[in-house]
Design goal:
This protein is an alpha/beta fold and about 300 residues long. It folds into three domains: about 80 residues, Orthogonal Bundle (Arc Repressor Mutant, subunit A); about 100 residues, D-Maltodextrin-Binding Protein, domain 2 (3-Layer(aba) Sandwich); about 110 residues, 3-Layer(aba) Sandwich (D-Maltodextrin-Binding Protein, domain 2), CATH 3.40.190.290. The protein is built from ten helices and 14 strands. The protein has a five-stranded mixed sheet, covered by helices on one side. Strand 3, helix 5 and strand 4 form a beta-alpha-beta unit. Helix 1 packs across helix 4. It is elongated. The chain starts with a helix and ends in an 8-residue tail after the last helix. It holds the Pfam family HTH_1. Belongs to the LysR transcriptional regulatory family. InterPro entries: LysR-type_TF_proteobact-type (IPR058163), LysR_HTH_N (IPR000847), LysR_subst-bd (IPR005119), WH-like_DNA-bd_sf (IPR036388), WH_DNA-bd_sf (IPR036390). Keywords: DNA-binding, Transcription, Transcription regulation. GO terms for molecular function: DNA-binding transcription factor activity; sequence-specific DNA binding.
């Protein structure tokens, strides 16, 4: 039977990059860590690490064992937390990542409320447009927007939101948009993380489906919605942006919604979590809470299609 303490030491060595750094993290001596890794290899009958004077490297067996070990330790932690939950409520740490824009506008207010309901729970939020590997980076949940690509993760739909074409009034004055044809030929700033940023199926005023293509010049592109909006506020052209993000700029007149009778496909908000045999109670509770929070606040309800 595997010794979980030794498995945890092995993971710590891999992630720290050396026995010395892992020993410091674990508050053990280097000799103790080294001994336990040798014992683990002896129990498994394989070499997990290649040791040189300069660095450590994983063997092929070590790479496979590391990934399984991270899964195992995460499931073990979740099981312990769930058993303890009935006695003292949620404890430990909940690790969640989202894009900076959606995190600031939507997720952080929800996390504050969730944290107030579970005062023993420590919540760590990481803002990043980068799609993290949930297992190796130890995230419980990632909030992702748009259309999900196929993956080995599970996903729960939180809600939907509208994306709308917007531009600055000064730009519109010099580049009037009166049809889908002129919209398609306009200058665009595109979001590079979209799967098909130049081709869309638009719903017209009579609910007809229309194939729409961006054929105009794309002089600027970026990987974040806030940067996209900054380009548009500077008068660089047209962009598709989430309605929840541009709502204040629309209200102040800094941006204008182009062709509001035409609707682009609604986008999903998903809570993505690792595909493990045991899903922790706190992850299930967070997903339920986010779904309920979206319903109660109505923040994502505008312009649903």
């Amino acid at each position: 039977m595997l010794n979980l303490q030794r498995v945890a030491m092995f993971v710590a060595v891999v992630e720290a990059g050396s026995f010395t750094s892992a020993a410091t993290t674990l508050r053990q001596t280097k000799a103790v860590v080294s001994f336990n890794i040798r014992q683990l290899e002896a129990e498994l009958g394989v070499s997990l690490l290649l040791r040189t004077t300069r660095r450590l490297a994983l063997t092929q067996a070590g790479e496979a064992f590391y990934l399984r070990s991270v899964h195992l330790l995460k499931e073990t932690e979740d099981i312990v937390n769930d058993v303890q939950f009935s006695h003292r409520g949620f404890g430990g740490e909940l690790r969640i990542t989202s894009t900076p824009e959606y995190g600031t506008t939507m997720i952080i207010p929800a996390l504050v409320a969730f944290g107030q309901a579970h005062p023993e729970l420590s919540i760590r939020h990481v803002s990043s447009s980068y799609h993290a590997d949930l297992i190796s980076e130890h995230f419980d949940v990632a909030i992702r927007l748009g259309k999900l690509a196929d993956s080995s993760y599970h996903a729960a739909l939180i809600d939907n939101f509208s994306i709308i074409p917007v531009a600055a009034p000064e730009w519109i004055k010099n580049n009037p948009i009166d049809s889908l044809n002129t919209l398609g030929k306009a200058e665009w700033v595109i979001h590079t993380r979209l799967q098909s940023p130049l081709r869309w199926q638009v719903t017209g005023p009579e609910q007809q489906k229309i194939d729409f293509s961006i054929t105009g010049p794309v002089r600027f592109s970026t990987d974040s919605a806030s940067a996209l909006m900054s380009f548009i506020l500077e008068g660089c052209g047209v962009a598709l942006l989430p309605e929840w993000l541009v709502r204040p700029a629309l209200a102040s007149g800094e941006l204008q919604h182009l062709l509001p009778d035409y609707h682009f496909p609604s986008q999903g908000v998903y809570a993505v979590y690792p595909n493990t045999r045991h899903i922790s109670a706190k992850v299930r509770a967070l997903i339920d809470f986010l779904q309920g929070h979206a319903q109660e606040t109505g923040l994502l309800k505008t312009n649903k299609l």
